[in-house]
Amino acid sequence: NSSESHNCAKSILTSDRLQIVVTLSEFFNETWEEANCANCLKNNSEGLSNYTEEFLDLFNKSLTCFEHNLQGQGIDLSPNNYTEVCKNCNDTYTKLNDLYNHLQRMNRQGGESAHSAHLCIDVEDAMNITRKLWSRTFNCSLPCSDTVPVIAVSSFILFLPIVFYLSSFLHSKQKKRILILPKRIQSNANLVNIQEKYS
C-alpha cells in the first residue's frame, strides 16, 4: 500500500490487540536513546566514529595483553601475584584510560557525534570491564600524578594558622600593665597616737 495516510498506518501497525509492532519499535527506540548509541557513530550515522574505533582497538589490545601475560606466568598463578600483567600492560592500559577520559571531556562539549551526553554504552562497558580487571582482579594501580600538588596545598593550609598567630603576635602592640595604687587612709598608727593624746 503506497498510501501514507495516518489511518492506513494505524490500521496496519495497531491492528492486533498487543500492538506488537508499535511496542517493539518503542522498545528499540528507547533502548537506543538510553544506551546513547548515537554517541559512538558519526554525525550521519554512516559508521563508528574515529575515536570509537581507536578506543575499541586499544580495548582489544589491553585484553590481549592481559591474556598473553597471564598465559606466560603458568598455571599455578597465585591470586595476588600479577606483577607481569601490571608491568607489561601498564602502557596499553594508561593509553586506554587517557583516551577514555579524553572522550568523556569531548563528549561533554559535543564531539564527533554531535550528541552531548554520556558516552555510548559499548565504550562505557568496555572501560568498566578493563578497570575492574586492572584494579580488582590484578590489583594493579596507576601512580597518581597529582601527589606533589596535593602535598604542597595541604602543607600550605596546615602552615596558615602558624603564620596567622605569629604575625598577630609580632604586629600587635604589647600593652604594659600599669599598676594603680589605691588611695587609702593613712596608716592606723596615727589614729592610735591621736587617741592616746586625748585619753
From TrEMBL:
A Pfam cross-reference name: OSTMP1
GO CC field: cytosol
TM region(s), chain numbering: 148-170
Superkingdom in the source lineage: Eukaryota
Matching InterPro entries: Osteopetrosis-assoc_TM_1 (IPR019172)
Keywords: Membrane, Transmembrane, Transmembrane helix
Keyword Membrane attributed: yes
Protein name: OSTM1 protein
Species this chain originates from: Urocynchramus pylzowi
Lineage: Eukaryota, Metazoa, Chordata, Craniata, Vertebrata
